[in-house]
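Forwarding these from the shared drive since the link keeps breaking.
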Amino acid sequence: MNGFPIHRGNGNDSERLTTRPLSAQIFSRSTSLVHGLVPDMNPDASKIAMLRAQEVMASVGVTSFHDMYVTAEMYEAYRQLDADGDLRLRARLYLGHGVHDQLGELADSTDRVRVGGVKLISDGSIQLHTAALTEPYHDLGGCHCGGMAIPAGALGVLVAEHHAAGRQVAIHTNGDQAIDFALDAIAAARTAHPDVEVSHRLEHVQTLREDQIARMVELGVVASIFVNHVYYWGDRHRDRFLGPGRGERISPVASVVAAGLAYALHCDCPVTPVNPLFTMNTAVHRVTREGHVLGAEQRVSASDALAGYTSAAARLTGESSDKGRIAVGLLADFVVLDGDPLRSASQELNELSVLRTVVGGETVFEV
């Protein structure tokens, strides 16, 4: 599942951009609007925050998590917690662009800390009219389709750089135009470096189209789906931002499952709370905050929703041989619930309670 992204920077120094590599210039310009707005967090504060987050995640049944925008300081904090024996969950880290250069050669992965790749933020959010769409926003009309935080050409440069280095790239893509540009960049990188075997991932894919799903299957790109959008913003997407047609289809988990595309579900905490059972329930029932069913055809079975946090999620990260199922030889990571999540299609999964969370055979939470 996705972890706790903390975005921060050291400000924008336009006088020094010209001395940096092209990829660094691109990223600095695209993120200059947020650099300097979030205060730096020292390593000790980072460790305290991570320990608190770990307690919450364990209490709702999380055994592994993905932290999707990790700075050099955060990486060092994770390593220190691990060395001290305080990191009890398994962390898969996606570093911000440029962090690899800051850190140099990374330390070997451990049982608890592994670097999964690099995170790029290519567009914004539909709620702010900043996601890049191919058709105008429903409530704005005209030709306002949002825009890219990283222009298409620049995105291609960044993806090619990391692909050539053998790093998985996770690209934030809410709008379908952003998804098109991300897939173009990945296709170009694969063509330029055909001998590099790495599967890239798209984050959120809120307005994913059927033709894009087919293209992702062809390119071997995987989908991490922010299905909580359905509950928290589904009513407004249908009535305001996207209109009935596109709004009903957001977060199309059923189409992804039907296509055989590797996928996972996530909550994008702190945007929405960490609660896998709630997120699974949203994928199964697709009920909005106002009580409406949004896109009934995109509902999935409880089994497919559960897979989005277990077996399918492990496939997304290439860890199926280690986790995602309860089987001999796999990691002893599991959760004990007070009921059967697969009992019936009509039950509310978020009404189940976590009684115990176990990681590596060790109980990390118990009621």
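-- next protein --
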Amino acid sequence: MVQSMRETERKYEVPSPADTSWLPELERVDGVAAVVDRGPEELDAVYYDTDDLRLSGSSAVLRRRTGGSDAGWHLKLPLSGDSREEISASLTDTVPDALLDLTRSRTRGARLTPVVRIRSTRLVRHLVDADGTTRAELCVDSVRAQSLRADGRHAAWNELEVELAEDADPALLDAVEKKLRKKGIARAHSPSKLVRALDETVTATADAPTGSAGADNGRAGAQVLAYVREQVRALTALDPAVRRDRPDSVHKMRVACRRLRSCLRSYRSVLDRDVTDAIRGELKWLAGELGAERDQEVLMARLSGEIGALPEELVLGPVGARLRVWNVVDSTESHLRTLDALGSRRYLDLLDSLAGLLEHPPLRARAAKDAEKVMSKAVLKEYGRLAGRMTDALELSPGPERDVALHEARKAAKKVRYASEVARPALGKPAKRLGKRVKAVQKVLGDHQDSVVARDVLRDLAVAAQTAGEAGFTWGLLYGTEQARAENRERELPSVWELASDPGPREKLGR
């Protein structure tokens, strides 16, 4: 069993643990009444990584630590700013399977072995308020690091950690840092003990992504690769949250897949499709596997909200209970489907392909061209496809054929949005403005498509209710509500599309 907590801390250089001349300054920090000595601790941690340091290269840390109050296995994953998520498991001889799974998107299945041993003599103090509640923990560490590889090199240093209590105001860290700076105590250059230990004891480090286009950000190749790198990082980072069924994580991971796939399609003039088409196919597969769970989330939120908005006298029969049972069954199945996909060799092969794409990008001649010209052409080409699909859809009469055509237009709108996202650093406001207007079209089309899907589900629920001898009135009412909603979106669509088809932003893109 694993536990998770948010850790927010900063590290500082200190010359010697014996020098405590700076401590009295911290009692003058607003909200701090006293600095309480909690005594020493002896910590012994072994850090694990792949041979090419894939975990540390993605700012993740996996260690087995003895000593102190939290002995056990700790996996630390980066969050924003000074924060990380720490996931802990009981002390065992080998890496717990639960933590192993959470590292998989970063290790891509490569074997984890001990790389560094870090022992620390720690002096612990607490910053407490007037009620005696701990607001932050100060740890002065005398650190000894040893490489566990063949060279066996050693390093030693002293450092200060200031870790915020779980419910404390983050502004406290700034106030403490201000006092420390006055005493000449500066931030540590390394974000963690592991990074410093690797820098000072391990000769081989994780390779940074390379590529000839990366050196010139004014070139199309550099900007496309920067966007791809950003989305690969997002996909990798979201994997642990998806495995633990965290809110909105499946949606975000699916969006990262779509953005990657769309980028590789729209910028085939930059990256060779002989390489990227296969990756696009696998991204489509992964997005499809995630889609079952995401679609279930959307439908449940939509239908439960509609039921909750109905007056009580219009809710006949066990409508809410039937919807919940349907959701439990389908959401469980869809989450298992997601986990099966993330646990598959096919998924790891996709991650390997994405890593290979960034390490050895298949650049075409246009990658070296001016980004503005190449990207404006790609965005306008995607817009042309959207315009054609919108024209075809709006000429059809309402019905199933038009529903399909509108859904295809929605997918084309997403491609325009994502292409303009990639191009925004080069094209600036025109790309941003076009993306915003197309997003409005996509929103209308998305609500329409959600209504189409919801009506199919409502019909199935109505049939099941009727078979069980329950009243079908409420299900029919909800079906009618959804039908009216779709009709409203179809009436709204022409005016929203008219705004998106304003030639102004596109003319600026084409200059």
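Confidence is low (pLDDT under 50) at residues 204-215. The CA atoms of residues 156 and 221 lie 42 Å apart.

- D.
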